Amino acid sequence: MPVLRRLFPFNEDGLLPTFRLLSVLLAVLLLAAAPARAQTAAAPAIDATQIEQASSDLDRASGQLNAIRERVERYKDDDARLVELKIEAEALNRTILAISVATRPRLEAIKARQTELGDPPAEGAPAEAAVVVEERKKLAAERNEINALTGEAENLSIEATKLSNRITEIRRRLFTDAILKRTDINTALFTEASGALTNETATLGRTATAWLQFVWKFKRMQLLGAVALSLVAALVLLSGGYRLFSPVITRAVQQQKPHYITRLSVAFWSTILPSIAVGAFAGTSYFFLDTFNVLRSDIAPIASVALGVMVAIFFVAQLANAVLSPGDGHWRLVRVSDRGAQLLWLLIFSMAIVNGADYFLGTISEVLGSPVVLTVVKSFFASIIIGALLVVTAFIKPVLHQGETPDAQGRPWPRSIFVLLILTGLGLIFASLLGYVGMARFIATQIVVTGAIVVTMYIGFLSGRAVSAPNAFAETAVGKRLEERFGLGQVTLDQVGLAAGLSIYLLIFVFFVPLVLLQWGFQVADIESWAYRIFTEIRIGSITISLIGIFAGILLFVAGLLITRWFQKWVDGNVLARSQVDAGVRNSVRTAVGYAGVALAGLVGISAAGINLSSLALVAGALSLGIGFGLQNIVSNFVSGLILLAERPFKVGDWVVAGTTEGFVRRISVRATEIETFQRQTVIVPNSVLINGQVGNWTHRNKLGRIDMAISVHASNDPRRVQEILTEVVRGQQGLLRNPEPTVVFQAFSSATLDFEIRAFLADILNGTGVKSDLRAAALERFRAEGIAIGAPAAAEVPIKISPEGADLITRLLDQATRENRRPTAGRRRKPAEDGPKT
Fold first, then answer.
1. How far is 475 from 688, CA to CA, in rounded Å?
2. Are 754 and 789 in contact (CB under 8 A)?
3. Cα end-to-end span (Å), the chain
């Protein structure tokens, strides 16, 4: 019977384990914060009364351990009770360790005080004061008491661990004995089972009839109300699921030849959503029937199992329909013929019916107190029928080759699948005939139920991988709707698709893995214990990690980060903006608030994660060592950034000159400063360079500045006149300050130029380029109007006079030189002909 209870596991109260698992996960999330807080809380010093309390707690724990040991011996054949006792033993072990840990701070304080007092004076040395001697005695006595308590706690913890391991060994032995137990298959067995079946049928008829009459007479409205509420809950869940996932399914249905990824998605969600809706109907039906007191104690387990078997059969049938698609070959996930798909669906559904009926009938026998032999015979026939169905499955011909249409004639299974089906089916039949009914029944259940769960998980993984593939989510109806509604880009849609794929993976792991474990003989309490350990007590050496604590720490850090960002914007946009603070101060305040908020959020997150901040001293030591080896520049830039933010030698918007870099400061961070040049190039300058080097700031205290403009004219001009003209031009120029008064300086002269320099002050030095341009244009216009030469004047043309006789002589000389120049050239042209062969 324990094996049969594992096939479709329900607890004794008739509650579905799936819903209990969900409640367990929620409970773990709520309770896991307590251990995290306990780890970070500093234990106060304990006094004598607290030592007595700790000793009393250990005595009480010892008594509880003995009681658990006695109950283990009493219920050593009840697997469910053994699971509960194992959980109690583990919880008691944690309590014992907590009692021991609570004494450690006081023990460390005693050791520190004894170290301060030092060793007692040697023989012959001056005696200590009576107060010191008395303190030594009290400290030694208290230390001995704490050591005794710690030793007792360790012994009790070892005993609790041994008891827990013994319970595990007993459960393993029970499972093995139940699976390998052999029953003699003979005529007497079937004769006894026949008589028991007659009695059970009569008892069941009387029980069901009496209950139906009672309900219809006294609980009619409660029954109808429970069914109506259950249907409403199922319909709400189903409609909500289809509203959420129907865009993908609806789009796919309109396609004639859908893509394989689309078929995977449709198969997964068309299996999960209806199955969840049917499961919700079953769970809410039982809940409302039990809440309205419609179910009696003898009917409740039967109703619970009937609802559970209905959900399981529906799930298997829905999965087979999604994978095989007997009515439409274009949606089929496997390459089989139409005829083969119909036969396979019928065989799978038949095996699910046989398996569910066997479990349901076994539950009836258990509730009515029928002999065990009747349950054995039922499982015997069920295993033989499932084995025969597997053998029949091996001989059908559903396989199609690549490119063949679904309506083509199928071919036999590949040899490996054929042999596997034959061996499995015959193995079930022979195991049942040899008397190993429990083993055959267990294997048959795993083939039907676990196989369906594993196939669903595989389809879900494929669907999640398809959704999270690059550019895949953007092509779905949901992705297109998000793109139209929120204007999301391709990168954002890919990130959403990745998150959706990971969510599908998480759903499969959280929902289906516990179902597989339940099918393999584990109890709900086992999964509860494992979930609690995984989320709260992952031990790595002496370090205990809590996943829930880490998750809570991350959430608090993110929340603190969001609050910091909001507070930054609020301070900058409301307080500083209304105070008319310049951009540099606003940037410094905003940066300081940001770093302070991030640091505070980090401390809160680390504390919430259950990490002791004192353990960060090791990290600080390693960081110091790293700074000594290779992080000097980073730390130097960081400290320099803090100095820049505090002293503010320049601020955002200032015009600075740092080496060869000149431009406006755009951003000051703790590592580097961004300077935007006049060509709109952003230069990242390390802060240490700005602190250690010379930096020119044109707008440090104010924007007042002087411009110097050099002007040169030709040396032939009158310098005083040029100086007067330039002075008039400068005084008439807009944008220049009258106090200090602009000046024109005669700087230098040479044989070619006279050099002047205009010196004038501006209220805003940032406008210097435009003012210089206007000033040069005005000066050039006045120079041209006043006839001031900028360059050297052009030389005058001087005419040359020559007599006719001289001209004739020059002409003859030129002609003679020309003839003499031509004569050698002609001689060189005739020479090759003279030296050539004679004819």
1. 50
2. no
3. 135
